[in-house]
Amino acid sequence: MKFNGRKVIRKSGYNYSFSGCYFITICSKEKKFIFGDIKERKMYLNEVGKLTKLEILRLNNEKDVDVVKFVIMPNHVHLLIFLKSDANCFIERKGKKLEDVRVLAEARIPKIIQQFKSRVSRCVGTSIWHSRYHDHIVRNQREYKMIYNYIENNPMNWDKDCYR
Predict the structure, then answer these.
(1) What are phi and psi of 149, to 5 degrees?
(2) Which residues in the chain belong to E strands, given as ranges?
(3) Which of 19, 43, 72, 151 is the most exposed, having the fewest neighbouring CB atoms within 10 Å of its CB?
(4) Which one-letter DSSP state was computed for residue 26?
(5) Alpha-carbon Rg of the chain, whole angstroms?
(6) Is the pLDDT of residue 149 over 50?
(7) 3 falls in which pLDDT band (50, 70, 90)?
(8) Structural domains in the chain?
């Protein structure tokens, strides 16, 4: 399926407001190394990396969002996000028609990522992100553990990283 000449990369028919765990990868524009450097298998954040970290931590202040694990790499960010609510939490908003409520609910994960990217870019003073991001719906405990460990060990495995 294409949208405005682009391939749709979200899972067709899936409501990204459902409670659950999502593995998100966001790359910097042109995969430039703008967040810091890896030395001796450890990530050292520069100022842009530190601003990015603050905005990731700020995501935990969002209602029903829990950033379980994250890592900032030289040119990309991995997030393991647990969304604790579903469309029902939006029904409580007064003055909204049911159709409007559904639109709000279906866009929850994309909206979180869009706002995060916007806030970081605003702090930096320019757009720093690739226009898209990769998401994976975590389906079970085995996947969760595998992704958690992947994020945890990502700086140590930088020499093998596909985003390098």
Answers:
(1) -65, -35
(2) 2-3, 6-7, 20-27, 36-39, 42-45, 65-72, 76-83, 134-138
(3) 19
(4) E
(5) 17
(6) yes
(7) very low
(8) 16-153 (3.30.70.1290)
φ, ψ of residue 48 in degrees (nearest 5): -65, -40
**Interval 23-68: pLDDT, tens:** 999 999 999 999 999 999 999 999 999 999 999 999 988 878 899 9
Which residue, 88, 78, 79, is CA-closest to 60?
79
**Does position 105 have pLDDT exceeding 60, yes or no?**
no
For the residues of 43-81, what is the DSSP string, one character each? EEE-HHHHHHHHHHHHHTTSTTEEEEEEEE-SSEEEEEE
Q: Which two tokens stand for residue 64?
A: 């029903």
